[in-house]
């Protein structure tokens, strides 16, 4: 996401988050409980999409979400 061209446009970023939420599979090595991992990833993506829609919460740049 850091190198994506959608990071400068709020609408494009929201669209990219929706695409990622709709993705069926998230490849990760070393994850044994795939269902739990997918749920975890989607919950973080939903919170980021909500932050993007409201355009708030990004001022805390010391911690990654």
What does this structure look like?
With 65 residues, the protein is mostly helical. The protein is built from two helices and no strands. Helix 1 runs antiparallel to helix 2. The longest helix is centred in the last third of the chain and has 21 residues, at 34-54. It is globular. The two termini are 12 Å apart.
Briefly characterize the structure.
Helices cover 51% and strands 0% of the residues. With 65 residues, the protein is mainly alpha-helical.
H and E order: HH
Mean pLDDT: 78
First-last Cα distance? 12 Å
Specify the oligomeric state. Answer: single chain
List the total number of helices.
2
Shape: globular
Protein structure class: mainly alpha
The number of E-state strands comes to 0
Supply Rg.
13 Å
Strand content: under 5%
Q: Ranges with pLDDT <50 over ≥5 residues?
A: none
Estimated helix fraction: 40-55%
Which terms would index this structure?
65 residues; mainly alpha; 2 helices; 0% strand
Q: What are the SSEs and their pairings?
A:
Elements: H1 10-21, H2 34-54
Helix pairs in contact: 1-2
């Amino acid at each position: 996401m850091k190198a994506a061209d959608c990071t400068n446009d709020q609408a494009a970023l929201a669209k990219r988050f929706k695409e990622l939420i709709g993705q069926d599979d998230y490849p990760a090595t070393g994850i044994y409980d795939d269902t739990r991992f997918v749920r975890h990833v989607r919950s973080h993506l939903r919170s980021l999409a909500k932050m993007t829609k409201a355009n708030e919460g990004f001022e805390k740049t010391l911690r990654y979400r």
